[in-house]
Structures are given as structure tokens and as C-alpha cells.
């Protein structure tokens, strides 16, 4: 009798676990600090709607890095600060689906070190079915500054980057140019927080200073008269740009 009861309990647990996994796909879920072994930060997790349909299929990965106004300790309450942004996590919560895995970590300081970004990407490769040839990095403000910093060192791991309102002036991007890393930078021309030249100069360097120049040519979109928040209109597509299709068009 005890053996039958244990078997029933095991079946219930398996069913519960399967339902939990199924419920996760197509939703944005908070993974608070300390709840996921191997991950040192709290983060938002999104799995595409077809994630559980085939256990052998791998998926693109997008890492989104927040700015200084969205810092926190990674608790469930703190992670909600990221939802204030008109960015992929909130777009998903509001009903938008994407064909990629999204990880949006939160840190007490938005300037996440390059080594820590690399750990996040490697964590994702181990814990999710990630297509390692289709890893993309995007971020805003301080997060975009770190996108540039990571790309300067680990360009060989990235299929494309989209830094928004960032500053890549201090980075040597010529090795990334030689690798052919696709880049699309965005900035507001009236940004008083991070100078537009933080995007203008690195894109120019990739296209004209570096030898060889990057191929495909790095792209730059400047929004006339727009201040620091140049990301909302970029991520939601209201400015007429589809950065998601663009990113997913590239692979290693």
C-alpha cells in the first residue's frame, strides 16, 4: 500500500512539474535572487510559446541589460522596477510573443561587469536550450555601455548587438569589426544624460577607422530631438524599426 501511495505521489509530482514547465513558456516569470542555483542575480525569464513543443530544439537567446534607474537586489519586488521600462519584459507581460529566450537580469549597480555578463550567458546555455550560434545582447544607458564593453571582448560569442543610449567610446572595437559583428545602435540626438557621440563615434570607428571595417556595416539610428529615453520607441517598434527581426537575421 505504501508503495502504491509513493508511486501516486511521484506521478502527481511529475504531472505538477510538467504543468509548471508548460505554464512557463510564453510568459514572463520573475526568478528572484537566490531561487535559481547557478545564477547570482535575480532576473526575468521568458521562454517562447513553442519551447516545450520539442525537447530537442534549441532557441535564440536575447540578454537585456537595464539602466541605472532600474537597479535592485533582484528580489521579486525589486524586479518590478524593470517592468517600468518600455522594453522587452514589459512588452511580453502586455501580451507580445517573441521567438527567443529572454533573460533580463537585475543588479544593484547597472554597470554589470563584463565577466558577470559572460557568466549570465554561460548560465543560460547550460540551463536553457540555447542555440549558441544565436546569442544577442541589448541594453539601455548603463546597460548599453556594458553591451559595448562586452562586445569588445567577447564578440565571438555574439550574433548581433543593439546598444541604446550607450557609450562605446572607450572600447577598442576593431577586433569586433574584424569578426563581422552586426551592430545597430540607437540614440536620441538631444540626450543630455549620455552624449549621442557615445553611439556616433563607435559606429564611425567600426565603419571607417577599423581596418578591416565591419561587414555588415554598423547601423546608427539617431532620433531628432529625442532625449535619453530612445529605447521605448525602439523596442516597441513605434519608430518603425524591427530590431528583433534584424537581430534574428544573424547567426555565428
CATH class: Alpha Beta
Total number of helices: 9
Q: For the report, how would you describe the main beta sheet?
A: 6 strands, mixed
Radius of gyration: 19 Å
List the helices and strands and how they pair.
Blueprint: H1 2-24, E1 28-31, E2 42-46, E3 59-65, H2 76-79, H3 88-93, E4 101-106, H4 114-127, E5 130-140, H5 142-154, E6 160-164, H6 174-179, E7 184-188, H7 197-209, E8 219-223, H8 232-235, H9 243-248
Parallel strand pairs: 3-4, 3-5, 5-6, 7-8
Antiparallel strand pairs: 1-2, 2-4
Helix pairs in contact: 4-5
Give a description of the structure:
This protein has about 250 residues and is α/β, with parallel strands linked by helices. It has a single domain, classed as Alpha/Beta hydrolase fold, catalytic domain (Rossmann fold), CATH 3.40.50. Helices cover about 35% and strands about 20% of the residues.
Quick synopsis:
The chain is 35% helix and 19% strand. By secondary structure, it is of the alpha/beta class.
Short descriptors:
alpha/beta; globular; disordered N terminus; Rossmann fold; 19% strand; 252 residues; 35% helix; two-stranded parallel ribbon; 8 strands
Amino acid at each position: 500500500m505504501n508503495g502504491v501511495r509513493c508511486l501516486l505521489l511521484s506521478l502527481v509530482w511529475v504531472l505538477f512539474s510538467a504543468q509548471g514547465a508548460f505554464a512557463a513558456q510564453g510568459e514572463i516569470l520573475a526568478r528572484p535572487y537566490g531561487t535559481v542555483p547557478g545564477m547570482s542575480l535575480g532576473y526575468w525569464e521568458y521562454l517562447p510559446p513553442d519551447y516545450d513543443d520539442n525537447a530537442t530544439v534549441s532557441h535564440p537567446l536575447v540578454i537585456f541589460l537595464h539602466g541605472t534607474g532600474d537597479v535592485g537586489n533582484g528580489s521579486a519586488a525589486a524586479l518590478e522596477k524593470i517592468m517600468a521600462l518600455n522594453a522587452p519584459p514589459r512588452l511580453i507581460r502586455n501580451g507580445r510573443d517573441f521567438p527567443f529566450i529572454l533573460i533580463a537580469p537585475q543588479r544593484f549597480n547597472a554597470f554589470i561587469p563584463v565577466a558577470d555578463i559572460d557568466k549570465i550567458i554561460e548560465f543560460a546555455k547550460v540551463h536553457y536550450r540555447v542555440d549558441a550560434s544565436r546569442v544577442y545582447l541589448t541594453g539601455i544607458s548603463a546597460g548599453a555601455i556594458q553591451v559595448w564593453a562586452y562586445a569588445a571582448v567577447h564578440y565571438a560569442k555574439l550574433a548581433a548587438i543593439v546598444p541604446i543610449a550607450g557609450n562605446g567610446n572607450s572600447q577598442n572595437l576593431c577586433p569586433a569589426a574584424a569578426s563581422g559583428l552586426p551592430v545597430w545602435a540607437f540614440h536620441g540626438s538631444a540626450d543630455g544624460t549620455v552624449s549621442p557621440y557615445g553611439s556616433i563615434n563607435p559606429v564611425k570607428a567600426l565603419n571607417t577607422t577599423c581596418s578591416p571595417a565591419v561587414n555588415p556595416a554598423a547601423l546608427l539610428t539617431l532620433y531628432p530631438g529625442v532625449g535619453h529615453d530612445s529605447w521605448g520607441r525602439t523596442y516597441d517598434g513605434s519608430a518603425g524599426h524591427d530590431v528583433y527581426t534584424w537581430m534574428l537575421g544573424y547567426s555565428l
